[in-house]
Amino acid sequence: MNLSEVKKVPGCALCEGDGGVLVWAGAQFRLIRAEEPGFPAFYRVVWADHVAEFSDLSTADRALCMEAVALCERTLRSELRPEKINLAALGNMVPHLHWHVVARFEDDSHFPAPLWAAPLRERDTAHEAALARRLPAVDAALATRFSAAFAQAALPF
Question: pTM, whole model, 2 decimals?
């Protein structure tokens, strides 16, 4: 069986659910805002088919996936002005292709270390709350830009 024919795998968290707050959905991928404590501006581009590795995608699908990751990054940069954007496609815990796109700020508990490292300072819950209040507008900007860029791939909500 071709990997691109595999749609859902029982027990896979990203096959059985959105994986967070659904921001935009298309036939080939969706964009969600993850609910990661301490990191409110944590998004994921989740490939629709259950494939484990980036190299499982066709050349065209890899380009499409990375364009989605880049559009998410550009939007977070313009809307939130973070110090850095982290990109990662680890998939060790959930072997379903997804890219992490995380806006990072100097006052986050782990900065400049990876968010999976030990914290370097206490969480600034006031900053996190202020950032979280801005996220509905960020989600709306992301949805608008994704719909414009990937109009043929969009699914109706």
Answer: 0.89
